Amino acid sequence: MEPKRPTAKSHAHSVLTPAFQAIPNPTNGVKRKRDDRFERTATNASSPPRKPDTAQNLSKSQGNGQLQNGKQDPAHRSTDNSLSKPLNEKRKALLSARKALPIWPHASEIRESLRGVRDVMLLVGETGSGKSTQVPQFLMNETWCQGCIAITQPRRVAAISLARRVAEEMGTPLGSSSPASKVGYSVRFDTSTSPSTRIKFLTEGMLLQEMLRDPWLRQYSAVIVDEVHERSVNVDLVLGFLRGIVTGDKKGRRGAPLKVAVMSATADIEGLFNFFDEGYAAAGKIKSQIFTPGHQADGEDDSESSWSGLSSPEETEGKTKSSSDQTVHIKSTFISTCYIEGRQFPVQIMYLPEPVQDFVETALRTIFQIHYKEPMPGDLLVFLTGQDTVEALEKLVNEYAQTMGPEVPKILTLPLFAALPQSAQQRVFQRAPPKTRKVILATNIAETSVTVPGVRIVVDSGKAKIKQFRNRLGLDSLLVKPISKSAAIQRKGRAGREAAGQCYRLYTEQDYIKLETDTVPEILRCDLSAAVLTMKARGVDDVVGFPFLTKPGREGLEKALLQLLQLGALNEDGKISETGRQISRLPLTPALGRVIVAAADEGMGCLSEVIDIISCLSVENIFPNLNTEDTKEQAEAARQELYRRQGDHLTLLATVQAYAAERSDRKAWAEKYFVSHRAMQNDVRKQLRAQCQQQKLLPATASFDDHNTTTSEARTIKILKCFLRGFASNTARLMPDGSYKTLVGNQTVAIHPSSVLFGKKVEGIMYNEFVFTNRSYARNVSAVQMDWVGEVFVP
DNA sequence: GAGCACTGC
Q1: Which CA-bearing residue is nearest the C1' of B2?
Q2: Which segments show compositional bias classed as Basic residues (predicted)?
Q3: Gap from A467 CA to B5 C1', in Å?
Q4: Which residues, other chains included, contact A281 with Cβ-Cβ below 8 Å and sequence gap of 6+?
Q5: Which contacts qualify for A522-526: CB closer than 8 Å, 24 or more apart?
């Protein structure tokens, strides 16, 4: 029984007059606990003590360490001559910044780690160690490095901004801006490389696509896989393929080695080590592990215990401590490991003494405790679960803030979640006005994707919405769950980027101890059909035998194989079909890819329209959510003109067509209809059209000229049947009691309130998504006749 | 009556 959350109104009146008495005194109410990580690091005898004061202090000691070693970065000498003066000046300034990075003194160790037969390096580098920018530069002039170095990132923005930074540091133009450019990047919609590119940042998905074309990655001498701890499905696939290349014979590479560096921010390398070690063993190479604790020990004292001590299960944060105290090396013949300390200021952790029911209410109290107690400056970052809790808390904080006395600094609340328009997201990066504290109310987006400057205090609800695919039901659940320890540590770390910070955990220390160590990897939580198709397209016949870092359950793999078979992406023998190959090259889920292929069979007009619809399904919401009741009503009225009785798919098509027909002022048009102008300027449409042409899904003579602005009834049926070819299993029929029941599994499903068919009753529905939140919802829904469903299975 | 976060030649 969860107590009903108090409304802002009731509090503003009764409890909070005068503002603060209702909120317990922070020193009594919250148990204090020092984060002892810093203390341990500071007593480390082997390196100068690290003080939390300034980055300058840090840079000095580490710069000196480099000088003592008397080594120079060869990357430096070799390119100097070709530089113009201003670039050189800039680079000199950047060089001192590079020398200040914690990773700098490890340059020769890192180079050594990948020489000779050592083809795999596992590197743990905490946030701020500089690993992403420096490791490729350390490696690029090694004798084995004749080709290009690829470095993967989970996100597009990271790939681009890292490339820009490294280009600056090397004093080379970026990407395609000059044929002499040595640093480039490749992400969806934006590839910028030159013939001279030596270091290429790319997204994991991009590297997977390159692997389909060139399974041996012949243009690369090394692949650096960064941010592995985030464990996206794509990174798991990349690692599996890379293991095959490094442990296999090098015939496909004409004997040239491929060096692989795997980098992670958390000390989870035991699993990675075993993963690659098993690969070497399976390939018949000697399985020799020498665990070498301490610095340059000889390997005689190879005790498993020191290694398992590193991964002691009871305390993840303990791992970080012991690893900072002494560099832990584990060596095998082929695999080396390397630990780099980060540059993170200490963060003090506070727990609640008692568990609470309502974290929104508790967050409210905590925010104001902090605001009254802590000196300025120091912005707050609050981690919540979703848009609903962010908006609820925003309202409450704003109400309470009005009751503060004039002597108290002001509060500026800033919501931050993915569905928020870009302009509103940008507000978190602006400096707060004088005498104002920013309070950023964020979802998980702030855990990895967005770094907010100025944050010194984190408030962590300890919860997040987690998506989990359920094979049996064929649906996604999106539920609020406790986060893992590593996520809690990640959130805490957001307070220590610029100065010493604090983290208020809205749960007890006991609760923290009970959290799972790591977040469940995505591959155990998602629909595997796309991953299986990628494997099949790269020639993996036995997907159960694929080298997974974490093996997904058999049920999930079987479900995926079955779905691909139903889509015609696989033949009866389990090998990929021509259709499957076409689908695997499209940047879409297999089901949506199947719709494209079906539409291509129907001819030009149909394909063009299906692409218009799918491009809308692949981007942010075309019809953005609105805050106030007033605008909601206005929007509903304006959008009526675009809505189609057949459902969401034809509504999207009508919207694209109306937008395309508007020749004068499209921005004004979008505003009039409450349609997202940004979402309508859709690169996916362009990309899909180009890919269909490249893949010859159309006769060579056909081209995408601008098509009709209206769609005939016969055409709409054709279009819906194309969608059914991909989504035949996502259908439900109307029951006498007015509910819908799925054809497969006979489960109750409700039409999502965002659908134009919400509240309508039709014979049958077809939908793109089946999600369980508070109940089972079908999203992106169209009306279909039940006899069409049987039809699509006829070849 | 409702929308965690990413990604794709």
Answers
A1: A753
A2: 1-12
A3: 10
A4: A287
A5: A522/A231, A522/A232, A522/A233, A522/A236, A523/A231, A523/A233, A523/A236, A523/A548, A523/A550, A523/A552, A524/A550, A524/A552, A524/A553, A524/A556, A525/A466, A525/A467, A525/A468, A525/A469, A526/A233, A526/A467, A526/A469
State the nucleotide closest to A445 in CA–C1' terms.
Answer: B5
CATH number listed for the domain at residues A54-340: 3.40.50.300
pLDDT, one tens digit per residue, over A473-483 is 999 999 999 99
Q: Measured CA to C1', what is the nucleotide nearest A589?
A: B8
- Encoding tokens for residue A532? 């299986």
Nucleotides in chain B with any atom closer than 7 Å to protein CB: 1-9
Using DSSP, state whether A589 is helix, strand or coil.
coil
CA(A418)–C1'(B4) in Å? 9
Nucleotide nearest to A448 (CA to C1'): B5
> pLDDT tens-digit profile of A113-151?
999 999 999 999 988 899 999 999 999 999 999 999 999
Nearest residue to nucleotide B9, by CA–C1' distance, is: A209
The superfamily CATH assigns to domain A8-29+348-522 is P-loop containing nucleotide triphosphate hydrolases (3.40.50.300)
Distance B5 C1' – A447 CA (angstroms): 9
Domain ranges of chain A: 8-29+348-522, 54-340, 586-791
- Please name the residue whose C-alpha is nearest to the C1' of nucleotide B1: A753
What is the tally of helices (H) and strands (E) in chain A?
Answer: 32, 24
Distance A14 CA to B6 C1' (A): 43
